[in-house]
Amino acid sequence: MRLLTSLVALMSLVNVDAQASAELPRLVVNILIDQLRTDYLETFAPLYGDEGFKLLMSEGRFYSDVQQPFTPVDRASATATLMTGATPNVHGVPGLTWLSRKTLQPVYCVDDSRYAGLETVEKSSPGYLLTSTLADELKHATARKALVYSIAPERDMAVLLAGHAADGAFWLSDDRGLWAGTSFYGKMPDWVARYNATEMPAQTISRSKWEPTYDNAYPSFVYYHALADEKAKQFKHTFTGSNRYRHFKTSALVNEEVMRLATHCAEATKLGTDATPDILSIGLYAGTFGGQELSASPSELQDTYVRLDQVLASLIQTFRQRYGKDKVLFVVASTGYDASAYTPTIEAGTFNLSRAAMLLNMFLSAKFGQAQYVEASYGHQIYIDHKVVEQQQLQLTDVLSESEAFLAQMEGVSDVYSARSLAVAARTPELSLVRGGWSPARSGDIVLEILPGWKIISENNSETTNKGQPYTPYPLFLLGPEVEPAHLAVTQTATAIAPTLASSLRIRAPNASREPPLALCNGE
Fold it and tell me: Measured between alpha carbons, how far is 450 from 83 in angstroms, rounded to an integer?
């Protein structure tokens, strides 16, 4: 018995020592790919090399079904969720834009007039992000010794990946085509200025031609043309005119430009060269060209995935050679949504949001007395004027309840959710998703769900079509120290990514994160 007790104690000590001596990754390469889909990823698998997606699948931990636990999802809300481990109702970024209660004008999620743009007229900060991020927690845990940088095509993604305490966030500016930043993080680093001066990205973009990377075997595999019984279509896109930089950012070529600056950043800043772990967040693009429907540019999407595979292979090889295979933790995640345009198979109908808001105001006036109860409408949401409700000596809950009942009767409406119903505990999965994407401070008082296939006309006469929410799987890859290879098809939520990375770095999770970390070893 004494011998058994001694052996158990010895094994415990060995286990503790092993945990204590486990070396942290020197660098976390956090790659977020906008609109990357598992089904497309698997469709184009025969075209990949061995060092990109295939390596991530064979040597990494591959979660093939990761879902965002809220709706609606876009690039900004998804990026904020990835870095905070929380949903928009907590982290405060419900989308790229929302309506300001003060001005009744649209607000862009990272606009901030207090901080000058660097190589751009755009003024930005993460000020609307209400919670800490993974990068913020690493900065805090290391007394700001850790280096944190983010590089992405778009401003919102770069700033939200960086968080509040980063050393820098950089994106391709729409106005100048240069790598831009914000004074929120300090002055423009010399290494970015030198890159802009020597590599001249604006001139590179203007001279670029996007053509298929076909080899002899490539044309024989064109999946989406095969569905339509068509041959592969050749294409050539150039980038000219006033919108050339925006067009470039929806092409496969943008990922190669991001990769060049990311590798330059690592070398210039000496990321990962000491015992303190650093984070380099990289934003990439896997959506359709120009946000078109897939049917309008299937060859372009195929080429995007092939080139994306090559970019990932280059990043993995570069950082592994520079720091060592067991010193770098790679994270490859998706924003988890599809922003491509959509033409419905069947034209179901048209829903005019402005007209619905006007009719609602007429109804409320008849019910509670003449007044301007409806303040504004935006997107799929209606804003009620709280001051008018108070002046009429009414209870807001009563006004919202009557509004729900009235709007639910309108043709084309599938569901209506008010702040009253969203503020209470969610009772159904559908309500839970809507609640997760609704920000009390920044969303409307009433959220409308329109039937799939219906065209929605907003106040500014812009038109969108609700494509519905068919099930689509999105991937997550983890590759690096203490990560055992596996393919896991069980559905996971994107809010688990931040606490998982925090656990790997031995730091606390972001302050609004509530998910336990994912198991990185089989059998845990």
Answer: 30
What class does CATH assign to 28-342+470-505?
alpha beta
Structure tokens at 481: 């120290």
**Nearest residue to 158 (alpha-carbon basis) of 280, 336, 301:** 280
Distance CA 2, CA 407 (A): 75
Number of helices followed by number of strands (H, E) in the chain: 19, 23
The tokens of 63 are what? 């979660």
420: confidence class by pLDDT, cuts 50, 70, 90 = confident
DSSP β-ladder status, 374-378 and 381-384: antiparallel
CA 109/CA 117 separation, integer angstroms: 15
The CA distance from 464 to 351, in Å, is: 10
Give CATH 3.30.1360.150 domain extents, the chain: 349-465
pLDDT digits (tens, 9 = 90+) for 151-169: 999 999 999 999 999 999 9
Q: Strand, coil or helix: what is 286?
A: coil
219 burial type by CB count under 10 A (0-12 exposed, 13-18 middle, 19+ buried): middle
Q: Residue 268: helix, strand or coil by DSSP?
A: helix
Rounded to whole angstroms, the maximal C-alpha distance in the chain is 87
Q: How far apart are CA 337 and CA 78, in angstroms?
A: 8
Instruction: Please give the Cα distance from 84 to 86 (Å, whole number).
Output: 5
* CA proximity to 183, closest of 151, 152, 159: 159
3-class DSSP state of 181 = strand
Q: What is the CA radius of gyration of the chain?
A: 25
At 192 the pLDDT is 98
Q: What are the CA-CA distances from residue 291 to residues 35, 96, 286, 341 (Å)?
A: 11, 16, 10, 6
The CATH fold assigned to 349-465 is Gyrase A; domain 2 (3.30.1360)
Q: How far apart are CA 384 and CA 361, in angstroms?
A: 9
Mean of the pLDDT values across residues 334-338? 96
Confidence band, pLDDT 50/70/90 cuts, at residue 217: very low
In the chain, CATH 3.40.720.10 sits at 28-342+470-505
Residue 16 has pLDDT above 60, yes or no: no
Cα atoms found within 13 Å of the Cα of residue 522, Cβ hemisphere only: 8
Whether the ω angle into residue 25 lies within 30 degrees of 0, i.e. cis, is no
Tokens read off for 134: 């993974």
Of 52, 82, 94, 131, the closest CA to residue 279 belongs to 82
